[in-house]
Write a structure and sequence with these properties.
The protein is of the alpha/beta class and 312 residues long. Helices cover 37% and strands 17% of the residues. The protein has helices at residues 14-24, 43-56, 80-83, 105-115, 130-138, 168-172, 174-181, 192-195, 202-209, 214-234, 244-251, 298-309, and strands spanning 4-10, 29-36, 64-66, 121-125, 146-152, 187-190, 256-261, 263-265, 276-278, 290-296. α1 packs parallel to α2 (43-56), α1 (14-24) packs parallel to α11 (244-251) and α4 crosses α5.
Length: 312
């Protein structure tokens, strides 16, 4: 079986952590590296959290790189109000022992994509797109070599979760998002419209806990912690498990449905800064540039996630 080569670009985040665990538990995927970016919490915490998660999966061999500590043109906005002061608040985990790689994440992305054949590497951004856009700016030659970008970010029907108009990952660095969406690479977008249908209901959380493993317990306790915010905000039965949707799509794309449409990023208006202007209804003549996912088989998604976490 040929394994799909991916780079996970992330700002962990409890849901990022679950996504990393899902990838590391899946033999179909070859995780070439994990690159950290500032987002949910500042960079020193996101790179630390990425290493904690790799150690939880007993995969200290996975290389973790620290990347950009601030957006391209804006001050950093973080989300401790959701994820806690460490980004992985909830159960306590020991500090990581595995080292952080000395190389900058952007340089790793550039070198890795250049070294692999065309269409060999899929980029999986789970946070703001600063590292990816910076790599494209510094080395535009890699753009045509990237196989695909499958990202978590944006929204259309659900509009915003950090402002009335914008989803957090895109809002943090709209300039970077604009660069990525204009790159011409095949993009799959896991926005709030789909992730808000992947809810951590009580039976689904207990299924993780009942695995009787340390990763299963951690997934359950992480979701216990961060779902409190979304349940209060949305009045829902659970919290959206955003980032694992990216990895699940690589494993079972049949769980998802969407439309190939045009998506533009608002970078000028403070009122709608970071909005993903998605032409869902095809009312413009702008060329489609992204597969915008709108629905998910949530039961199938959680069945996959539980089965894979059980392998760790």
């Amino acid at each position: 079986m040929s394994r799909r080569k991916i780079i996970i670009d992330t700002d962990p985040g409890q849901d990022d952590a679950v996504a990393i665990l899902l990838a590391l538990a899946s033999p179909e995927l070859d995780v070439l590296g994990v690159t950290a970016v500032a987002g949910n919490v500042p960079l020193p915490l996101t790179e630390r959290n990425a290493r904690i998660v790799c150690e939880l999966a007993e995969r200290p061999d996975v290389k973790v790189f620290a990347g950009c500590d601030a957006p391209l043109e804006r001050a950093l906005v973080t989300a401790e109000h959701v994820h806690g002061k460490t980004g992985l608040d909830g159960p306590q985990l020991p500090d990581p022992v595995m080292p952080l790689e000395a190389q900058h994440a952007v340089d790793f992305i550039i070198e890795t994509v250049r070294a692999e054949p065309n269409d060999a590497v899929t980029l999986c951004p789970l946070g703001p797109l600063t590292n990816i856009a910076t790599a494209f700016q510094r080395a535009p030659d890699i753009i045509e070599k990237v196989a695909e970008i499958v990202l978590m970010g944006g929204a259309y029907f659900q509009v915003g979760n950090i402002t009335p108009a914008a989803e957090f990952n895109i809002y943090v660095d709209p300039k970077a998002a604009d660069i990525v969406f204009k790159s011409g690479i095949d993009i799959v977008v896991m926005g709030l419209d789909v992730t808000h249908k992947a809810l951590t209901t009580r039976p689904r959380v207990e299924a993780f806990r009942n695995l009787g493993t340390e990763p299963g317990r951690m997934v359950a306790e992480w979701t216990d912690f961060f779902e409190r915010f979304d349940k209060e905000k949305y009045g829902s039965a659970g919290a959206p498990l955003h980032d694992p949707c990216v990895i699940a799509y690589l494993l079972k794309p049949e769980l998802f449905t969407g439309r190939h449409i045009n998506v533009e990023i608002e970078t000028q208006s403070e009122l709608t800064m970071g909005m993903t202007v998605a032409d869902w209804w095809g009312v413009t003549d702008r060329a489609p540039n992204a597969m915008f996912i709108g629905d998910i088989d949530a039961d199938g998604f959680f069945a996959l996630l539980t089965e894979r976490i059980a392998r760790l």
